[in-house]
Q: What sequence folds into this?
């Protein structure tokens, strides 16, 4: 009887160990290949228009979100429901030395969805500022400058 209880305890311990090891490894190897960034206009106490950004990696920020994506991945920008944005006009990098935004993000048809394919040869750890120009629901044009970072 003691051998059965002892063997059961060992099997239970191994099962718990394997489950916890699997959970930890899957969290560490989170895949950032494709990232979706959602946009929403907000007005702060100063009365100025800002951009609330949230990405599929779980990051949320106002104006200055740093999103992480892998080399060769695709970045998609779209509007949240009730975004207070009439349209996205342009998503581009103003940098002279462009490593991630070798061209502007491309509008998908007539929608407010933009996509950018990250080059396969971007240096790991590269960080690039980019601009989003959008039209607020009141008709004003707003420009915000978040960041994209490349990780393996």
A:
């Amino acid at each position: 009887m003691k051998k059965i209880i002892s063997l059961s305890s060992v099997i239970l311990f191994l099962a718990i160990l394997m489950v916890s090891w699997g959970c930890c490894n899957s969290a560490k190897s989170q895949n950032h290949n494709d990232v979706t960034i959602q946009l929403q206009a907000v007005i702060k106490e100063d009365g100025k228009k800002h951009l609330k950004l949230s990405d599929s990696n779980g990051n949320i920020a106002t104006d200055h979100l740093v999103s992480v994506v892998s080399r060769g991945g695709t970045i998609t920008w779209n509007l949240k429901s009730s975004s207070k944005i009439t349209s996205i006009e342009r998503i581009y990098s103003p940098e002279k030395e462009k490593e991630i935004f070798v061209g502007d993000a491309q509008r998908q048809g007539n929608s407010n969805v933009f996509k950018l394919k990250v080059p396969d040869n971007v240096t790991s750890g590269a960080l690039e500022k980019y601009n989003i120009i959008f039209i607020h629901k009141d008709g004003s044009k707003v420009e915000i400058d978040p960041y994209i970072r490349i990780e393996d």
